């Protein structure tokens, strides 16, 4: 029980509400990216996904945008080969079918994006709790003061951006006749990474201010103690007599040793 209380003790002097609110905003951005359907935008003027015979399939829709939200439900893959040998790939969900838009590789990339967005949101909430509660436990304090969680979030956001660009390039290869570009989901996660960087900067400034204030307080305490000790010494001069006598003894002993050294050459001359 004591160990648990040690981990959840609140320290108001170390609390950093600014970084806490920024990390909450980071979590909101990551969740918004997680539920977005606009990670990849596809502008196809030929409308090739609704021409015969592809439009005969129930639920067939034009593939205009893709996002992490499209991969929440149960899905499956299928295919179709035309008489001229042209192959088509079908991505089936509960309510629609997308042609020549999603492959197993693209699906795996979006599943990875879902995992990254979830981890970013979770770690951002943990960072917010660390900055607001500021537990004094050594490991948690090390995480907070060195902005380890924020740096991890920045790396995760950078990885998610790279995965999104790879998915965009893969879809562009599938649809060479269409214009494929990244959407708002990527920008939301990029903004989340920038906010994590801002939180790290604010946290480091807050830590440096606290250390500077404590250093000044320690200097004041040391000065006050030294002045008090000198004042007490002036009031009780008898306490300094043993020290003065000891210093006189050391001076006399050093003078006697010098005289002995100066006398030794004269004794050798007389011999």
UniProtKB/TrEMBL annotation:
Domain Transmembrane protein 127 transmembrane region: 101-204
Membrane-spanning parts: 21-42, 109-133, 154-174, 186-204
Signal peptide bounds: none
Organism of provenance: Mesorhabditis spiculigera
One GO term describing the cellular component: membrane
Any one Pfam family match given in the protein's UniProt record, by short name: TMEM127
Keyword Membrane (UniProt): yes
Protein's name in the database: Transmembrane protein 127 transmembrane region domain-containing protein
Keywords: Membrane, Transmembrane, Transmembrane helix
GO BP: any one term: negative regulation of TOR signaling
